[in-house]
Known about the structure:
Two copies of one chain form a homodimer.
Chain A: H1 19-46, H2 50-62, H3 67-74, H4 78-90, E1 94-97, E2 107-110, H5 112-119, H6 125-134, H7 138-154
Antiparallel strand pairs in A: 1-2
Helix pairs in contact in A: 2-5, 3-4
The structure holds a DNA duplex (30 and 30 nucleotides).
Amino acid sequence: MSTDSSGNLNTTDKKFPSDHTKQIIFSIRRLIQASELYTKELNKKYQVSAAQLNCILILYEYGPLPPSKIANHMMVKSSTVTGVVDRLEKKGLVERMRNSPDRRVITIQLTEAGKNLAQNAPPPIQQKIIDGLKQTENAKKEQIVRSLNMLTGMLDVRDLEVK
Amino acid sequence: MSTDSSGNLNTTDKKFPSDHTKQIIFSIRRLIQASELYTKELNKKYQVSAAQLNCILILYEYGPLPPSKIANHMMVKSSTVTGVVDRLEKKGLVERMRNSPDRRVITIQLTEAGKNLAQNAPPPIQQKIIDGLKQTENAKKEQIVRSLNMLTGMLDVRDLEVK
DNA sequence: AATAAATTATTTGAGCTAAAAAATTTTTAA
DNA sequence: TTAAAAATTTTTTAGCTCAAATAATTTATT
């Protein structure tokens, strides 16, 4: 019986991951790391992290929002937003307001500097995907969507509560 | 002229991301968040994070290794490994050794407790992918590989130096 | 009206991540 | 042999993320 480099006896042996499986896991790790490296790069060049930029762009697109709504758009938990907003406030890019009749609610809004940054924003990481997909035929895009849906399905991700 | 909910004039207008593009970006975020949620879950149930478990399994598979090699296998930078190893050492699952003739090199090895954990390890996140892919036909797997390769290509990921 | 339940934002704690700087050691060159 | 360069690990720093607990407020119930 012969074995391959991963120790598989053969391609039908399901005890160990196949090469395809390894490639897929590797690619997912690459996607994650790409976003980590990108945020470091952004921060160095523009003194704004990916999360911060994302937050600014959301506020620019949707107008002033409370942290909970920002969290929904950013797809993170709202305790994460608190920290992001803290750092943006420290840089004078956003400010916290209390103007809702419900006094629990705080509204975050862009300052002039924040708007300015939004208008001259460096590309968020998504831009690379957006640009890349522009030259991609629809059929292929659908294929990518299907592939990713299979993967997210496998990871049994509970739905992100985006209201 | 009509606009859709994302403000697109029509499907050939390339100024804004299409729905497919949004779905793809959303899915990638889901993959990342799934791995974050999984590590929290692991930590709660087994007092070991995903990164820590990964490190343990690598040491079990390849034997004692210096941090730099662990980093290669884990696909992270070695500064990250330092912290992971610190926490594992604190739990008595690994130990740092200085046994190389090259005295800069530190070797990390599993303790008995560490080996024990490796043998009775809870599933790493990859297991969900591995299991999910088992019931997937080869053609589809290849499709997933192709899709992910397109995406990692777009993100212009510099090759992770896996030696 | 008083109490209980729900909601919103924040704090705290643990962990991951990478860059940059510092420390250590080996190798190379003068 | 000694000084400079290169390699490697560790430390430091800054940021993101989430869960859980807390505080403040509002809504619902009794």
